[in-house]
Amino acid sequence: MKKFILAVITFILITVTSSIAAGQKRYKEFPVTVYIESSTHKPVIKQAFSSWTNMTRVAKFKYTNSPEEANIIVKFAEQPSVNKGESYVAGTNMNLPSNDGYIHNSIITIKSKKQKKNIKMYDSQIYIVALHEIGHALGLQHSNNPADVMYYVSGSQRMLTIGDLNAFKTLYADKTN
Ligand SMILES: [Zn+2]
To answer: What does DSSP say about strands 88-95 and 106-113: parallel, antiparallel, or unpaired?
Structure first.
């Protein structure tokens, strides 16, 4: 249930920021500069960015150590789980408002919490949540297909699908043709 609520919050944020200009916003050019907060999850977040690069051959990212230089900032936040002992992962993305029809800054928050010390947070879950939120940062909206990473609930997804890639190609048509 909580996962659902967070997904809806993410959706609302995207809807609000997208409604400022007509059409769907996106980054104008690649590479997009990324800052990832220090965390044990940093490698898996980088893996998610690499997947977007490898699968689209268009989305390119470069990393910086200073948040001020970054277009996309990835943060981590702890989030208590609903049931005792149950692990929980979700994320949000917020694209900051701009006036020129393009996205310039995004803040991704990956929420994770180990309810008990002996419960491991799976990097495979964080990977999928990161893929999804990076998709939002790039301007993608939710998919209606539960198989897609951009579906509003993360669960059974393992990798970016043709549906996700087509959504990207539509948004970045001038770069993918
Ligand atoms: Zn979402």
So the answer is: antiparallel
User: Using N-to-C axis directions, what is the helix angle for 42-56 and 162-171, rounded to 10°?
Assistant: 70
Element housing 13 (H / E): helix 2-18
pLDDT > 50? residue 45: yes
Q: Which residues contact 176 (CB under 8 A, 6 or more apart)?
A: 56, 58, 168, 169
Name the more confident of 89 and 153: 153
- Cα–Cα separations (whole angstroms), residue 2 to 9, 52, 70, 91, 165: 11, 27, 30, 11, 28
Domains and CATH numbers, the chain: 2-176 (3.40.390.10)
Q: Which residue has the tokens 């400022």?
A: 20
176 C-alpha to ligand 1 centroid (Å): 23
At 111 the three-state DSSP class reads: strand
Ligand 1 centroid–CA 116 distance in Å is: 27
Write the pLDDT tens digit of every residue in 66-109: 999 999 999 998 765 555 555 566 889 999 999 999 999 999 99
